[in-house]
Design goal:
single chain; 76 residues; 24% helix
Length: 76
């Protein structure tokens, strides 16, 4: 089971990744956080970018996850 920790809209709203979600749950017994970027590459095609890290390491990895999302924005 995954719990929603926070939701954030991306700026500008017309970008490929429109909304970012952070979920917390367990993978193989390890408390884990997921950063999920959701959006559209075209009106018909949806995109999800999922980044995961153990809860204890999440703060160290979060800046890298945001860099990944920003690189997807440049592709779009």
């Amino acid at each position: 089971q995954w719990n929603l920790v926070k939701t954030q809209s991306m700026e500008p709203p017309s970008s490929v990744i429109e909304t970012v979600f952070v979920f917390q749950g367990r993978i193989a017994g390890v408390e884990t956080r997921l950063l999920v970027g959701a959006g559209h590459t075209t009106p018909e095609k949806q995109i999800l970018v999922v980044c995961a890290a153990p809860e204890l390491w999440y703060r160290s990895y979060e800046p890298v996850f945001w860099d990944i999302l920003k690189s997807v924005l440049k592709i779009g």
